[in-house]
Specification:
The chain is an alpha+beta fold. It has a single domain, classed as START domain (Alpha-D-Glucose-1,6-Bisphosphate, Chain A, domain 4), CATH 3.30.530. It is about 30% helix and about 40% strand. The protein has 2 helices and 7 strands. It has helices spanning about 10-15, 110-145, and strands spanning about 1-5, 30-35, 45-50, 55-65, 70-75, 80-95, 95-105. It has a 7-stranded antiparallel beta sheet with strand order 1-7-6-5-4-3-2, covered by helices on one side. It is globular, with a radius of gyration of 15 Å.
Length: about 150
């Protein structure tokens, strides 16, 4: 799912790969880097919890492709969330970029997951769209203030 951002591509890249900062814009999600450093490297490991209050789904990940400032792939390695998440940043001009977030996930729960996905998908897409709009606003505000 793409979103255009009124900020340079480098600023967008910095924002979307700030794993622990994703909680500011990613709906209901808290992320922690579980390997050394800030997680901005091949092989880094992450742990996210997505949910409401104390109830959430644990999502463990590993960075399996790292090509700054344009592409990062994380492999979801958890019990429920499995597959690849792809972050891509495309420069549109000196002060604008497009961020594309793609999830190539294996549906959990077998037949039940395949049956339930058409019901869950619109809610999932709406949450991702809301998160992306918030990320764009935060990135643009940070760029305008010189942060």
């Amino acid at each position: 799912m793409p979103v255009d951002v009124g900020a340079p591509a480098e600023a967008v890249w910095k924002a979307v790969t700030d794993w622990e900062g994703q909680g500011e814009w990613m709906l209901g999600t808290r992320v922690a880097v579980t390997s050394d450093g800030d997680g901005r490297r091949l092989g880094a490991t992450l742990r996210a919890v997505t949910g409401v209050g104390p109830i959430g789904i644990i999502d463990t990940m590993e960075v399996v492709e790292w090509a700054p400032p344009t592409r990062c792939v994380v492999r979801h390695t958890g019990r429920i969330v499995r597959g690849d998440g792809v972050f891509e940043v495309v420069e549109l001009g000196p002060e604008s970029a497009r961020f594309l977030w793609t999830e190539l996930l294996d549906l959990p729960l077998g037949a039940l997951g395949r049956f339930g996905w058409p019901i869950v998908r619109p809610v999932f897409r709406a949450g991702v769209a809301r998160s992306l709009r918030k990320m764009a606003r935060l990135c643009e505000a940070e760029h305008l203030t010189g942060g």
